[in-house]
Records
---
Amino acid sequence: AVVSTQSTGVKLTWNTHYVGDVRGVNNQLLDTYQLKSLDGILERDVNELIIKKKGDKLFIYDEEEEKEAEGRAADDDSFVELGPYDKIINCMGFNYDPRPFRNLTKGAEEEEEDPPITKYPSMGWDYQSDTIQNLYYAGTITHGTDKRVSSGGFIHGFRYSSRSLSYVLAARNHGIRWPSEKVPLHGITSYILKRMNEMNGPYQMFYVMTDVYLRRGNTVEVFKDVPNGLLHKIHELLVEPLEMSRDLVVVRLEYGKDYSKVGGDPFRKERTELEPARAHLCNFIHPVLYHFTNTPRAVPIRTKALKGEHRKLHLPEDLYTDFATLKRHWVPLNNFIGSIWNVDMSYVSIEECLLQHLTRAGMSVQCRRPLLSVGHIDRSNVRKIPDWELSQKFLDDFVTK
């Protein structure tokens, strides 16, 4: 028999969508507990339990009940004795011990007591200590910024936050801008669509890692894997003056509101929503676009919210996280981009552009600009989006600039 002890109760990943909770592959104990096959669950603070050894066996007592039991008759069994057990395993994880850094702490000369030991140190979205200047954290310990929000406590998550930390330090200490690439404005819809199906950082670090699309005239500059808590410092990451005006779109992946919670029913019958007009009601992970005409506002750590957006677009969820369908994804995304940036993003095919050129007809703006990926989509299968650089080369060969 196995007894699992925890102070907060059982949290299941299919309810919370937090990988630090009990995964389905590890929940056999819950099954055997409910079916009364000797295994059990004890919801107590382990710090309030007492372990005693009798002979070669171990027994567990509640600290308060143990005190009350003093002086009772030997046959009084009104208090609980758990056991006997052969082994008791401590698998409580780790705590952060700040004492080695005590002399570096701001105002350390005024401190008389050791700082408290907690699970994670106090830090900001830039992974810098709140109490020790120029001390930055990397690895699983940076989960202090997104605990119970995303996956930063695990290798598939903190590998992206560690890379982001390197970009933050490069910008802050060496004046090196956050890495970016430039895409012509009339190719941005196809670029975003393709990127939404490939962005590993925002997929693993949902809510936290974002892609930022900054419009610069007829060009869009793309910055990948920017932590949502640093969007209010975008000027610092881009090594630009704060007062510069910025028109940007932020893309990230989210679950539905109130879908990820303890005690919820993630398997209820009406749990999916596939209609674009009702995409804001989607429960499963899906893309959300935020349009900002001003710098986004600061948000506290361990929060899902973004603040200060001008407009927002939810795109529908998909069983296979395939966000590249024509009617449910490409059309609403293209309309949204055209609306917020006041640009004609209508469909013009390569063949139509070539015909306009050969007949000397008035050429549409899509054909006058190289890279018209929005016009290079196979209407029958939008997933066959060609690489935009190849599209640009094709138009360079056939369209007069």
---
Amino acid sequence: FETQHCITLPECKNLPLSALLIEPVSRIPRYVLLFKELLKYTDMTHPDYPHIKKALDDVSNIAQLHNERKRASEERNAVLRVYLSLLPEQQVEIEMDSFM
């Protein structure tokens, strides 16, 4: 499945594959903002208030977990790049093959 093929499909809305893959992740912060705004305009005595609050708490926790895991992944990649830069070029090819 090629990126160019995806762009030509009507359901892809002329977006490259990379944009479509990041879309679900980019929704998480939007949900946090949505629930914050909804909570701000919902009276505390309204029966939906605790449900909206729980949804905000849950989505906020998911966003925080995602950010922590992304940061950890970036740190691992940085360490890997340093490690691979210290190896002779031939050894790097062998090491990269073991990751595949």
---
Amino acid sequence: GGLSAEVRSQYEVTWEHVGSTSIRGMPGTLHPDSLLMINSFPPPRQIIQGLLDDGFVFFGSGPNHKDDLWFLKRIKKPGSVLDGKAYKIHVNKHGHPPAWC
């Protein structure tokens, strides 16, 4: 599953850990966020399929911008504070300001 090296290269995929969990010591929701930036929008089939193959589900657009697409996956880490939380990936186009800016 996931995004192949060919797809990552073709769509110039970059990945960043964002949100409150990306800042050590900052209180947050314990729902990790990542930002997946691509060179094409809306996301091509290969990007969407890669996320689905990796166990993510499409949740919809974020509340602040229709082009901030959210994909969620339940975290399964028994004994961890993250167990049962949702891992969120924001999918945006390169050069497009993230929805939380």
---
Amino acid sequence: VVNERLLADLITDLELWFIISWAWFWAAGFAGPWMFPSTFGGDPHLGCSSMDYFSMLADSDLSLNIATITSRPVGEMSVLTARLRTDFNSKLGCIVHKKGISS
């Protein structure tokens, strides 16, 4: 059995239009600051990148697996948290210290 759909069915399908609109607005929301930095206040030339983030994780013997954090003792977690806070502020400061545009 072949299911046929007419072009009119696609055009009038509200669920399809919702998904397409959501995808476009989601993409524009994330791409807007880098495509139009003077309008949205984004900075396409940041001084730090994901490479800095992943090197910071590697230096701390962490990975994206949550077990690398939750399996540690409480005292070690306190020291790790303080060190990560310092590393975030120093190595990823170009992102962490960003503030919204105020008028």
